Amino acid sequence: MEEIEVQPGSLADEIEVESTRATPVTFSELYEHDFLPLVRLATLMTSRVEVARDIVQDAFVKLHVKWATVRNPAAYVRRSVVNGCRSYHRREMRWRGRKQSDEPTATLDVDDTLSTLSALTPKQRAIIVLKFYEGCNEHEIAEIVGCRPGSVGPTVQRALTRLREVQT
Fold first, then answer.
1. With contact defined as beta carbons under 8 Å apart, do 41 and 134 qualify?
2. In 10 A of CB 76, how many CB atoms?
3. What is the pTM of this model?
4. Contact by Cβ (8 Å): 81, 37
5. Which are the contacts of 62, defined by CB distance < 8 A and separation ≥ 6?
6. 131: Cβ–Cβ under 8 A, 6 or more apart, which residues?
7. Which of 163, 159, 93 shows the shortest CA–CA distance to 126?
């Protein structure tokens, strides 16, 4: 079998260089690259920017402690953020003594995205945000949320039905 030599400046060389640039290598690079997108994700899930920042910061602290043993740090921190948002909703429900809050604690000036998303359960909200705002596929969503891939589609459909009810 003949080996193919990659010439400097070739397309294969450019692809390899580009792919290494896109993947953060150190904790600091990952933090700089992913902090704001994760805050956006958490804000959409919690409806509160200050809570979102705290959740993301906590996720990065947990990652920093386990940095040497985590195989995929970006996936680990993303899942930690989703789990942190779900934990936030559980605490809020216990504190308020009801299943869902009636009103969001923050709204956007431009649109009613946060108030609309607040009509969903925390799991539905996580799945909708991951699918439509983050562009994750069903397998990625299932891994992040901790459910079976087959349950993602029906959950999306139920959530979309609920969102249509809220908007009318």
1. yes
2. 18
3. 0.61
4. no
5. 80
6. 141, 152, 156
7. 159
Tokens read off for 162: 């609920």
Q: 18: which 2 tokens?
A: 């580009």
> Which distant-in-sequence residues (6+ apart) come within 8 Å of 45 by Cβ?
52, 82, 85, 117, 122, 125, 126, 129
CA–CA separation, 31 and 48 (whole Å): 21
Residue 111 structure tokens: 């649109």
Model confidence pLDDT, tens digit, residues 43-66: 988 888 999 999 999 999 999 999
pLDDT 10s digits, 81-104: 999 998 898 888 777 665 444 444
Which phi-psi region, left, alpha or beta, contains residue 146 (left: φ > 0; alpha: ψ -120 to 50)? left
Is the confidence at residue 29, as pLDDT, over 90? yes
Phi-psi region of 8 (alpha: psi -120 to 50; beta: other; left: phi over 0): beta
